[in-house]
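The records we work with from here on pair a chain with its fold. Taken together, the tokens spell out the fold as the letters spell out the chain. To see the layout at work, look at the sequence and tokens printed below.
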Amino acid sequence: MISILVGLILLMALAYLGWSIIWVAPVVAGVVALMSGLNVFDTYTGTYMEGLVGFVQKWFPIFLLGAVFGKLMEETGAAKSVARQVTRLIGKKRAILGVLIASALLTYGGVSLFVVVFAIYPIALELFREANVSRKLLVPTFALGAFTFTMTSMPGTAQIQNLIPMDYFHTTPASGLIIGIVTTLIMAVGGYFWLAFRQRMLTSKGEVFTEPKHTEADHSTADEKVPNWIISLIPLIVVVVLLNVLKLEPIFALLLGVLSIMIINLKDYKKFVFSINEGAKGSVMAILNTSAAVGFGAVIAVVPAFEHITSWLLHISSNPLVAESFAVQVMSIITGSASGGMGITLTALGDTFYHMSQSTGISPDAFHRMAAVASGASIFPNNGALLTLLAVTGMTHKETYKDVFVVAFLIPTIAMVVGIIMGAVGLV
């Protein structure tokens, strides 16, 4: 257990200080293996690399196509066009709200978190530029909109974190309706008010929008001609409809989204090669950052003490909702993945919790909703989705994590506690 604690503290501290997770994760995984009595070489070449490669194998096409999609939206001016229209509708002062709503709608619709990051980022950048809001708030705004309530607490969300519990508790995506609505309001409203407060604080200090290094030369004229905003929306609509209405695989949906951008902006064909090349390069760095953390989580899961941790979490409270929520949250923090932590916990303890629901009279719907809510209250510096977001936006933990901690860990944890109380008294 000490080896796991040391490994987590090292990984999070070094990531926060700006050290690349790509080399920090395997080194720290080696420290954990050494302290746990495992063969370091075999653990690295076997367990760690299997975790890393497994993630790349599953997600690289999404990262690649998502990054190319986002870059084409940016370079053709489609993102800027949509951003300007959103600014007109909600006002320049509400850029954070615009990004929050856009990312929340896509996530709730079932679009992968990684796809949302790549698709919305160029639009978010334009909104923040138009409103002159510090880029430090980009990451926490994304984290709130895509990694919290629409991923876990909103009844009916199509995200995997809301679907995994169904197999264990024989429930539906809308289970725990009342708990879901209340916890959603706590996260969404509380998080937005925090970000609005932070925007005012940063602006008063003179911290406003600064251009990302790679785009400083690209936005010299505020009156630059852009495509019609309705036409610019078509690629986003294509992706969302193909994913959620026609239930197409994300790879095909994104591929057709990329093709739709190119067809609509055929006159800008000279920009296509540059956009595709830059998107492809960006996707490699993003997926390596994330998969490195996943490999570390795989090593943690084979440490002998890991089984003792699951047993301890099961018996941490006589209230099974407390035990379940805390177990899912801790495992999600350790593995750096909401779905990964929930999967490990429910695979080991799901049947136990289901039988507890029968014996205690607590509704299985409450167990379903609390497993989902708890999985999202876990965004620590080693979180894979956060690392992807940082890689895509070019921001660092030092610049952004304090606000991420509030909106994606502290407030969701408060929501989790409220949800446990509601489930225990029968408000499901």
